[in-house]
Amino acid sequence: MSNKIIAKSASIIGIATLCSRILGFIRDVVIARLFGVYIYAQAFVVAFRIPNLLRDLVGEGATNSAFVPVFSEYTVKHTKEEFWELANVVLNFLLVVLSAITILGIICSPVLVRLMAPGFIAEPEKLVATIRLTRIIFPYVLLISLAAYSMGLLNSLKHFSIPAFAPCLLNISVIVCALAFGEGIAGLASGVLIGGVLQLAVQIPVLYKKGFHPKLFKSFRHPAARTIGKLLVPRVLSSSIYQLNNFVDSIFGSLSWVVGEGGVAVLYFSYRLIQFPLGIFSNALSQAILPALSTQALEENHEKLKHTLTFGLRATFFVMLPAGVGLMALSHSIIGTLFGGRKFDVYSVNATASALFFYSIGLFAYGGTKIIQSCFFALKDTVTPTKIAGMALVVNVILNAALMFPLKIAGLALATSLSGINSFFILFFILKKRLGDFKVKEIALSFLRILFASIAMGLVSYLISKNIFQGAHRLDKLLNLSISILCSLISYVIFCFVFRVNEMQELWKWLKERRQG
Fold first, then answer.
1. What gap in Å lies between CA 335 and CA 350, rounded to an integer?
2. How many CB atoms lie within 10 A of CB 388?
3. Tens digit of pLDDT for each residue in 321-336?
4. DSSP string, 33-82
5. Neighbouring C-beta atoms of residue 439, cutoff 10 Å
6. Number of C-beta neighbours around residue 515 at 10 A
7. Residue 344 β-bridge partners
8. Is 344 helix (H, G, I), strand (E, B) or coil?
9. Span 438-447, mean pLDDT?
10. Does the predicted TM-score (pTM) go above 0.85?
11. What is the distance, to the nearest Å, from the Cα of residue 463 to the centroid of all Cα atoms in its chain?
């Protein structure tokens, strides 16, 4: 796949993810205004995080690290019949494992909740609500993991659109059910389960059209399945460590007597905003770039792979750095405008804006790490990212413990950013040592120029946000935020030319060619 094809695939995924993120925002706004950052919001965050852990272990994480590289190789070196034979073996194995995990999860929900949110033990009402919600939505693990498996198959066949749009259905389902049922956990639980069913169902017709015919429980052995297993075990460990970071944040966030009331929900709502630029661009790019890296890694000469990697990192910095600075500059305005109202009171706004500010510091590192991890996965090395993830967990625990007392909930967000930045640079230099030079000086110079342009843009954003009218009406706040964002985008373009950011010049040249053509 050329860079143009990668960019096209990434744009498809990006558009789909943009739709999903917008719907996700609406979903979070509905939840925030119905529940604030209090009992049911915190119960939902904890209950939904447990299935998300297992989804990442045996679903989306397995897809990126093991399924796509191996399936992509099979599309090049083997026949369609052999490809679909492997797909059936993997499906049968997943069905057995996922069914067992789901049953055990429902039974063990009380233990899981107490481990993940020990601060809830002192509040019986919150604890009971969280356990009940966890049990109801645990089958989501089976549904979403099978949906992720389907996505892996389709992405390996260079089909990105339907899998990319599928998550929109979860958000729509939760929004509709939450509004229909109102306050309480019934709407949240039913919305998650229905959304899981829809995400899987929408991909099945496409798989059949591509030639997939499931042969359930007929075969569990295949030579390539062992390769997937070898790649998957380190990835499972790596994902476990990554999710343990989230668990650590939940554990510390549940300690309301230290970090303040609603810590778990505050971290959730603020990090959801961080996921917006990550999902729209970085996740889309890393997902689109993985099949290309996987096939390029098969070549003895890694020049194409290094070129693709450089392209991915520069493109990520070009978007993630200004996004991070912009979120920092407009954190309070964004939270107040999007979530403020009803049960999402002044305390909720201030606490969430503070967490968003410190999360945003590490945004470029979160995005860059996804690109570098894709390169490791393409090289069929899932061990190195696992080791670095383990180190990041230790760093995060230490920083959480150190920073939560002086900074409260904001300290947990800052700890995550510092840990993420540390992990990115370690992975970057390990990859440089393994591949040799992949235009590191060019990447560093590009990073600095984009950083200077982003900081200048951030100052403009902050000054405009603070000096234009600050009406109490929601429409006034929305207009304020919209003007600030528009001015931020315009100023970023201008400062990119001032600081001679090559990525902007290349984009401008491409747009002119498209217009002339």
1. 8
2. 22
3. 999 999 999 999 999 8
4. HHHTTSHHHHHHHHHHHHHHHHHIIIIIHHIIIIIHHHHHHHHHHS-HHH
5. 16
6. 7
7. 341
8. strand
9. 88
10. no
11. 30
